[in-house]
Amino acid sequence: QFEVAESGGGLVQPGGSLRLSCQASGFTSDYYAIAWFRQAPGKEREGVSCVEIRGDLTNWSGEDRFTVSRDSAKNVVYLQMNSLKPEDTAVYYCARGYNCLQRGVWDVWGQGTQVTVSS
Fold it and tell me: Helices in the chain by DSSP H: which ranges?
């Protein structure tokens, strides 16, 4: 069974940092594109960032505060988030795909992890 599971969310003050993890199981994440999406209350889901099969990064958010990286040995993809702002508050999801097209096919999704940025 193919699964991804997010972790690492929580409550953080503005200006703080978090590192989210996306643990893949049942497949090798290196062979797929892995993306991070987020959905804030009352808003549509939006793409944050993505790592291609060959390792190229696509930053959909336009924010250089967010960085995606892979740990192939652990089968994990991370989202490092720095200088967090209240508007970054959302549920963050990771998903498996075949290329970093935001409207492409994303066939495995996690349950999400809540990130709350507040003082």
Answer: none
Q: Is 3 in contact with 57 (CB distance < 8 Å)?
A: no
Distance CA 99, CA 105 (A): 8
Sign of the dihedral through C-alpha 48, 70, 91, 99: positive
Please choose, from the candidates 115, 98, 114, the residue with its C-alpha nearest in 3D space to the C-alpha of residue 106: 98
Alpha-carbon distances, residue 63 vs 1, 24, 35, 55 (angstroms): 34, 25, 15, 19
Output the tens digit of pLDDT for each of the chain's 119 residues. 999 999 999 999 999 999 999 999 999 999 999 999 999 999 999 999 999 998 888 889 888 999 999 999 999 999 999 999 999 999 999 999 999 999 999 999 999 999 999 99
User: How far apart (Å, rounded) are the C-alpha atoms in residues 74 and 14?
Assistant: 30
Residue found by looking up tokens 């795909």 in the block: 97
**CA 76/CA 55 separation, integer angstroms:** 13
